[in-house]
């Protein structure tokens, strides 16, 4: 990897080497040595997925799926599941890892069907996006999909048994409903889901920040 130009003639950042400390079935922990903008060598503890297919830039797909039915409000499809890493239930978009030879679009449709039972149509696919770059190399593509709820294949969807709970949130009051849900249920909302809801609120010209007694404001 070539070093990029730094500021005022200083060397740019560049990768030097990585040593694997632990190798698991799904993840590995390594120590990455790199050069900082001042030319100093530093180390960084890095988590990497071991499952990324050869030649792929992304690990998988995250599906922003909207259910559309006649005479009904549009609904965002989310899933609730237990995540051992944070010892909590989470509220997330349907998502999963790409299989070898599988396109991001096909991965999104498969994961949507497996996790929710719905068959959707891909509307758009984002570039590869990072998920937690301060910790890992994990990446995903954000795939928007539309579900025809009046189609016979989507009348009584049957998800594969994956210990998931499928939830429906009206798009016209998404942020409010998510906030209400977290007050009633002990769940942690995925940051992508909450940011999507905030952006939707902002697009309507409304303040997405809801002040509460537990929020600390610096004056």
Automatic annotation (TrEMBL):
Q: Which family does it belong to?
A: Belongs to the Nudix hydrolase family.
Look up the record and give one Gene Ontology term from the biological process aspect: ribose phosphate metabolic process
State how it assembles. Answer: Homodimer. Interacts with PARG.
Please list every transmembrane segment annotated in the UniProt record, as residue ranges. Answer: none
Nudix hydrolase domain location is 56-191
> What are the annotated GO cellular component locations?
nucleus
Question: What catalytic activity is recorded?
Answer: ADP-D-ribose + H2O = D-ribose 5-phosphate + AMP + 2 H(+); 8-oxo-dGDP + H2O = 8-oxo-dGMP + phosphate + H(+); D-ribose 5-phosphate + ATP + H(+) = ADP-D-ribose + diphosphate
Record's keyword terms, sorted: Hydrolase
Q: Which domain of life is it from?
A: Eukaryota
Record carries keyword Hydrolase? yes
Q: Which organism is it from?
A: Branchiostoma belcheri
Q: In Gene Ontology terms, what is one molecular function of this protein?
A: nucleoside diphosphate phosphatase activity
What name does UniProt use for this protein? ADP-sugar pyrophosphatase
Q: Which EC number(s) are documented for this chain?
A: 2.7.7.96, 3.6.1.13, 3.6.1.58
One Pfam family recorded for the sequence:
NUDIX
Entries under PANTHER family matching the protein: ADP-SUGAR PYROPHOSPHATASE (PTHR11839:SF1), UDP/ADP-SUGAR PYROPHOSPHATASE (PTHR11839)
